[in-house]
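Hey, quick one: can you model this chain's 3D structure?
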Amino acid sequence: MLALLLMLQQSVADSSPFRPLALPPPTAARTAVGTPGRGYWQQRADYTLQATLDTATNMLRGTGKIYYVNRSPETLDYVWVQLDQNLFAPGSVSNTLNLPPLRFAGGVVFDFSGKGFVGGITIDKFAVAGRALTTKVFGTMMRVELPRPLAPNLSVTFDVAWHFPIPPYGGGRMGRVGSRFYEMGQWYPRMAVYDDVHGWNTMPFLGAGEFYLEYGDFDVSLTLPAGFTVTATGMLANPSIVQEGSRIARAFAAPGQVVQVITRPEAAANATRRVAGTKTWRFTSSGVRDFAWAAGSGLRWDASVFNGILVQTFYHPDATPWEESNTMLRFAVRHFSGALGEYPWPQISAIEGLVEGMEYPMVIFCPSLQKREDQYWVLMHELGHQWFPMQVGSDERRYPWMDEGFNTFADYDAAEDFFKGTAYGDTVRRELLGAYAATALPGTEQPLISKPDELDGVPKAGAHAHDSARRRARSRGVRPRVQGVRATMEVQTPTAGGFLSADEQSDRAGSRLVLARMDLHHCPARSGDRLGARRERHDLPLSLQPRADGAAGHAGPALCGWVERITGLACRDVASG
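Sure thing. Here's the predicted structure for all 577 residues.
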């Protein structure tokens, strides 16, 4: 009878959505806990692209080259390419399923549809050395047969051309306002990730699930109306095209001071002034996983500098809450640089527009919100994604908690810091606990590891779990320990097993509570057509661990203050990380 009861208990446990994960055995590429092993590798994709915007038809046309490097130990006979604009194609899976909007904690609704828009991307060319390749499109994914097998450590260069109509509302992640303002993401064919965990990652883009991308360099030329103001991932390679260069220089001459590069009267005049012809803006960026841009007429432009980083905000003249946005954004850059490691890129641009909130490397799209606390929150939250996932490189389509959970956890500390001494700053964490209580109802709870497309809503359970961890750690008397910090990281995804195994270890150990552990891999940019051979590994563990002598463990100075604030414990023993 006892044996039967045990068998029944085991069968019930195995059917639970909260059952322990069956983690894979170790390999040369991954250890048993999912962290990179000695044979770890990741692919590389570099893009040289040219795009032209036709405002008369709202059509974007592009050409370019994709340099793809096979660093895996396998020979590849084909590759997969992401065609995200097919989210809006006739008969798309998303349109067929008619997926409802995602409901976030606090009542926010996020619509990932095209609101009836019918479009989709057309691939005009996908070739190698002038030879057209055989392709097969499956919704938002395209399989490309290679002209010859691509052996390990070899590369291939694809010649590509494409075009698509720009949706007015692009699933909450990009779009346009008429023919005068554009926020552009998911606008070019992007290489799918091939990794040691899943092989080719071909999960379709259905709207809710975000992105998982290879790292590389970008060289992008955008031909747009001459009267537009433009910003993008990276830095402008032809800065003479910008007439306001002397005003930007003033920002560098007075760090911390906000300079009006384009004033409100100038923006209003630009909105009605017709400028003939086009200009070509060229942006370059190294070691990033994506590229986005925004352009339009009649935009205000503010700039300031923090620690050599150019902080830019672009907004419409009637978006008065954004007059403080540059100060807010610069504060958040400073806060996260101290809390999570220095911001690694030369600039950050925030653009006000129709997108409710979306992040790309060095570019964030945010709305204008009347309530000051809400305005800071959306700017700060989208900025926080420059660390999670832009540097960490997680697979957002499978594991949104890896970036949304940790980012939201860090957000509450940043909000407390900005609004310190106010009623909001003193009570902001109560919102976190209240949001969890409102959504974690019996019968409606969902595992944190659920895929975004399978969620009924998005409670801030990840942040709640870590806030609970902070409070439990304080009651147990454990002390903070942070080590191995590096500001510039080019990394591939941590596996779910790597995250979860650390949590399981904490449950078994009792005295050790891991808030986060990410083993990160950095690869140098290639020079010309030759790959750098040097590899480094950088760890960013955020953990709470007691030492035998009861003293605080070593902590990197950039993170020590943050650890003190979130734990309420003294960090007495500080050493360089």
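One thing worth noting: The two ends are 57 Å apart (CA to CA).
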